[in-house]
Every structure is written in structure tokens, then in C-alpha cells.
Amino acid sequence: MKKRILSVVAILALSAYALQAQVDFGIVAGPNFQNMVGKDAGGDKMTNGLIVGFHAGVKANIPVAPDFYFQTGLLFSQKGSKNNEGLLPMKSSGDYTTTTRISYLELPLHLLFRPTLGSGHMLVGFGPYVAAGITGKQVVDYGSLPSMEQNIKFKGEITNSERWDVENAYYKRFDAGADIFAGYEFSLGLYFQLNAQLGLLNMIPALEDGGDQPNLKNTGFSLSLGYNF
Fold first, then answer.
1. CATH number, domain containing residue 148
2. d(CA 40, CA 27)
3. Bridge partners for 193 per DSSP
4. How far is CA 178 from its chain centroid?
5. Is the pLDDT confidence value at 53 over 60?
6. Which of 105, 124, 160, 190 has the fewest other C-beta atoms within 10 Å?
7. For residues 72 and 145, what is the distance between their CA atoms, to the nearest angstrom?
8. Is residue 77 assigned to a domain?
9. Which tens digits make up the pLDDT trace of 112-155?
10. What is the pTM (predicted TM-score) of this model?
11. Domain range for residue 160?
12. Does residue 149 fall inside a structural domain?
């Protein structure tokens, strides 16, 4: 009986070691060029501008078939936008701009195609992501007047008084969407890639008493530099 138990433990240990030996672990970082696109409360398209943030974290490539991998990991990623229309029901007169920066913990769930190309590997992938907001700031600039800084608070639904809160700005905590990327990995493990991301969830909280609201979704692209150990 003891021999059987020892045999099972040995097999499990060897299997875990073999799986670990096949999985590629790596680190990644780079700049984000993010926006929030959608419509204001009146249904008109909002004209927003890009902000520059960054992402950094760890990734793992788990083999599922020859040249195909399941890629996951955990990233710290900054998102947001710069606009001149505001997030309130009415449009602004253009006299102020709002710069929103929200930091997320992001979990990618990608399918990676990684065939040999030259001395390295081509990288092509796509798949969903899920993210949770952890902190953020929103700065409102009134032209020549002093700017006003608001803390980001995460709520799925807000009251009418919270809607007009001047000290805080409210956004939904959870985001989800789709990624697509392409790049190249050199023989020593260093790689670079271009990523595009499209959010699928409205980040503006619902109003407790109903009524029209903006519909804004995270979108953008980024450049990544990484290393697989």
C-alpha cells in the first residue's frame, strides 16, 4: 500500500515538474495610449483625447498544442481619457477639460500562436481580458482658473447628489473586453509586441433614480517590451 502511495506521489511530482518546465514565465512593461469612447447622455458621440499611461506585470505561456499557448498573467494597467465635454448630462462650453486616470489590475486570457520564425518566434494572439479598478484621479482644468482634482470612487449605481459631487468622480470598478496583439520574440527571450484593446462594458455608473447617462468604454493600444525566462 505504501509503495502504491509513494508511486502516485512520485508520478504527480514528476507531472507537475514536467508542466512547470514547459510553461514560459515572463515579465512585461510598456506605455499605454488610452481613451474612453462612446456617447454622452444626449446620445451624441463624445470627442475625447488620448492619455499616456503604462502597464507592467507578469505573464505565463502554457502550451496547449504545437505552437499554440494559453497566455495569462497579472498586469497593473493605467487607463482613462482626456475630453472637453464632461461626463454630466449637458455638454460643456469647451472652457474646461477633464483628464481621467484609473489604475486597474488586469487578467489577460489569451490564445497565443508562437511559431518559429528565423532564430526566434512570431507572436500573434487574441482573447478576452477582465480588470478591476483599484485607484484613480480625475483633474478638471478651467482654463486660467486653478484646476480641481477629484478622487475616483467605484460604484455600480449612484444617487443624483453623487452625480453632482465635486470632490469625487464615480466609475464602475469592473471592466472587460477583448485584446489582439502581434510581435516578435528573439532567441534570448526578449520580445516586443503591439497590443490593441477594446472594452465592452460601460464604465459610467447607473443613476439610482433613472434617467439618461453617458456610455463610455475603455479603448486604446499599447507597446510592450518583455522577457521570457
1. 2.40.160
2. 38
3. 183, 224
4. 9
5. yes
6. 160
7. 45
8. yes
9. 999 999 999 999 999 999 999 999 999 988 767 678 899 999 99
10. 0.84
11. 25-228
12. yes
Q: How far apart are CA 149 and CA 197, in angstroms?
A: 27
Smallest CA-to-CA distance from 163 within 200, 199, 202, 211 is with 211
Whether residue 127 is contained in a domain is answered as yes
Query: How many whole angstroms separate alpha carbon 22 and alpha carbon 149?
Result: 48
Tell me how far apart the alpha carbons of residues 149 and 164 are, in angstroms, rounded to a whole number. 14
Number of structural domains, the chain? Answer: 1
Q: How many CA atoms lie within 13 A of 226 on its CB side?
A: 28
Direct distance between the N- and C-terminal alpha carbons of the chain, in angstroms, rounded to an integer: 40
C-alpha cell of residue 54 = 503604462
In a domain, 3, yes or no: no
* Identity of the residue numbered 114: R
C-alpha pair distances (Å), 215 with each of 15, 24, 203, 207: 48, 39, 7, 12
Average pLDDT over residues 48-52: 90
Rounded to whole angstroms, the Cα distance separating 35 from 51 reads 7
What DSSP assignment string belongs to the chain?
-HHHHHHHHHHHHHHHHHHHHHPEEEEEEEEEEEEEEEE-TTSPBP-EE-EEEEEEEEEEEEEEETTEEEEEEEEEEEEEEEESS-SSSSPP-SS-EEEEEEEEEEEEEEEEE--EETTEEEEEEEEEEEEEEEEEEEEEE-TTSPPEEEEEEE-SEE-HHHHT-SSEEEE-SEEEEEEEEEEEE-TTSEEEEEEEEEE-S--SPEETT-----EEEEEEEEEEEEEE-
Distance CA 50, CA 67 (A): 35
